[in-house]
Write a structure and sequence with these properties.
486 residues; mainly alpha; five-stranded parallel beta sheet; 7 strands; 44% helix; 6% strand
Length: 486
């Protein structure tokens, strides 16, 4: 008991002296590649009449005017830039911009595969002109910009080591282009490896040039998009999941995201000095749709319904899309989806918050860099989306873990793999509960996770404690004390 009291005294002292840091690195610039999820204006510059995102009510929430963003306000890339803090990354095609602090190469409707692939295979979407803005084209734009950013190899290495690179999301437009051209779901699935290969090649190219910090996001759940639900809706109820999304189309996204996660793990092995992370759009969006009230979204109608559109079950109408004359938006855009394809600023804000919690330590603030290849992708796929806190820490363990995904248990096993093998079963059960509480109910905090690993591996005790996690730290130390007294 004396040992436990000593532990409690130590953590109380530390809580007064140490606080969790925000970003470990003060990034000098942010560079983004991708499609409409992160385009900040390139499409409206390149082809002003291609879509209607240059018209009101786009941009109404934050900018009070259309900016070329396919949303009512800011995107994930904007929130990340502001949190660093950096200026919003200007679109590369804009004239007279200062790109020294970053640039955005993303273009709405951009594909991972080159235009040549679509032309050679006669994949021509009905009613849409194909654009030459693929991922390789965006990399070419970056290469053209590089001489204005740095000159020598050493200078570029230093510049890139202090820059953050976001490679995506991209791939969504590949899938919708194929589907719009009449290709089957099976055909689309067969092209997922080619699309992920293109993303991996782009990542490799950037890493070869000295990029040190890269985030590779997955794609959104295709089957939950109002446009997909409207165009490919089924009379068979069994084709929909419990949320109301088309499962066959979500399977495409899941397959894509699994391949991207595997690619990120392999890239981390090949480039051990870099920090390469997978980031998730799929899971947070499905959670918003499943439990919209928890996240503050509108609940007076289906969460699958778009805010801005021309009517229909999902407020998406091919003949009256958002931005066209006479098409209006909901008065308070607290829906998940904005225009039937893209998402609202509120949704992007919550997603960005989860990504930032991962960026705060990038794991290697406290954990040796060699662990990154096996841990970073797991951490960033489990975004810190707030869930209701349990009323009692003594809640039955089985009910606590009931319904959790396999990745939750993978996280537990990963964390416990660094604990002493001699720890008793009862103490390990306590640690399971602590890890799950931290993982699911307390804005996932890498600083405390590192405290677990450092303490139980008998490494240097480096606790990062702030007032709001003091209680959790006490539980960890009690568990430690139990082990020491056995």
């Amino acid at each position: 008991m004396k040992l436990v009291l000593a532990f409690l005294l130590a953590v109380t002292t530390l809580s007064q002296q140490v606080t969790c840091t925000t970003l470990r690195l003060s990034y000098k610039a942010i560079f983004n590649f991708g499609d409409g999820l992160s385009d900040t204006g390139n499409l409206v510059i390149l082809s002003p009449t291609a879509l209607y995102i240059g018209n009101p009510p786009y941009g109404e929430t934050y900018f009070n005017r259309p900016t070329g963003r396919a949303s009512n306000g800011r995107l994930v890339v904007d929130f990340i830039a502001q949190s660093i803090p950096l200026p919003l990354a200007p679109p590369y095609l804009a004239k007279g911009q200062d790109f020294s602090k970053g640039a955005n190469f993303a273009v709405t409707r951009a594909t991972a595969l080159d235009l040549k692939f679509y032309l050679d295979n006669n994949i021509i979407p009905t009613g849409l002109a194909l654009l030459n803005t693929s991922l390789s084209v965006q990399l070419g734009w970056f290469a053209n910009l590089m001489p204005s950013l740095c000159n020598t190899t050493d200078e570029c290495n230093l510049y890139f080591s202090n820059s953050l690179f976001l490679l995506g999301s991209i791939g969504f437009s590949d899938y919708t282009t194929m589907l719009t051209a009449g290709k089957t779901v099976d055909y689309v699935n067969s092209k997922v490896p080619d699309i992920v290969c293109s993303i991996t090649s782009a990542a490799t190219s950037l890493l070869d040039q000295g990029v040190q910090h890269m985030v590779v996001p997955g794609v959104v759940p295709l089957g939950c998009i109002p446009r997909i639900l409207t165009v490919y809706g089924s009379p068979n109820a069994s084709d929909y999941d419990s949320i109301g999304c088309l499962q066959r189309y979500n399977n495409i996204s899941q397959y894509h995201n699994k391949m991207v996660r595997d690619a990120v793990k392999q890239l981390q092995i090949e480039f051990p000095k870099a920090v390469i992370s997978y980031a998730d759009y799929y899971e947070p969006i499905t959670k918003f749709l499943a439990t919209p009230r928890i996240y503050g979204f509108t609940v007076n109608r289906s969460p699958l319904v778009a805010c801005c559109g021309g009517g229909g079950p999902y407020n998406y109408n091919l003949s009256a899309v958002c931005g066209q004359s006479g098409v209006t938006a909901c008065p308070d855009p607290t829906t998940v989806n904005w225009d039937g394809v893209s998402f609202t600023e509120k949704a992007y804000s919550i997603i960005a918050s989860g990504w930032r919690n991962g960026f705060r330590s990038l794991v290697h603030d406290f954990i040796p860099r060699t662990w990154l290849s096996s841990t970073a992708f797991i951490y960033l796929t489990r975004l810190s989306i707030t869930r209701p806190r349990i009323s009692s820490i003594g809640h039955d363990f089985r009910s606590l873990v009931h319904g959790f995904h396999s990745s939750d248990m993978a996280f537990i096993h990963l964390t416990k793999s660094f604990l002493p093998q001699s720890m008793s079963t009862s103490t390990m059960a306590v640690m399971d509960i602590i890890v799950l509480i931290e993982h699911h109910f307390f804005h996932f905090n890498f600083c405390l996770t590192s405290a677990y690993l450092n303490f139980f591996s008998l490494a240097e005790v480096t606790f990062a404690v702030s007032n709001h996690i003091l209680l959790k730290s006490i539980f960890v130390l009690i568990a430690c004390g139990m082990h020491a007294l056995q």
